[in-house]
Fold this protein.
Amino acid sequence: MPSANDVYFRPEKLDDAHTILFEIDMLRFAKDHLLSQRSLPERDKWVYLEDFLLHYCNLIEFFGKPVKPNDPTDLSIRRPEVIWQGKLPAQTELEFMARQDLWEKYDTHNNSEAISKYLHHCTTHRTAAKNWQVKEMFEELRPVIEKFESLLPEYKPVTALTGGERIADQTSEGFRTDTTRTLHND
């Protein structure tokens, strides 16, 4: 039987915008570790690379994948009313953030170089060597991320905390990281 210390939680999302902000936060976190000047053990690099690719894939799907009418639970920039439950951003801003080109470049099903073929599906593609240009990939998505964030209230990601703030609280249920995330509506 697992102890309370064996149970882990991701930060709670207060709304659907938080889900995307969490993806952005984690993408930056992984990118920053991969591109940092400090030496990381090889195994840690693999973890950060997989983390980067997972969140990158989720974000390019949010910003670029065409919406399936039969699955209203998928979050998409093409369904802005789910993210902005009040006044929607201008159509030009929404169009700027709709990046189907990045989704097609990195993750369509007919793309042999798709991230998902190397990451969250066990396929024969995994044995082929693949170099991921983390900095270039991030820079391709950065303007979209920055525009998205600028259209929402201030957000304090858990990965950006200073040394004096708590990153996790141990409770009887396990470790939680949701106590330090805030989204201000000021």
Notes: The beta strands are 155-156, 169-171, 174-176, 182-183. Helices lie at 16-35, 42-64, 80-83, 91-97, 100-107, 115-118, 134-150. Residues 4 and 174 are 5 Å apart (CA to CA).
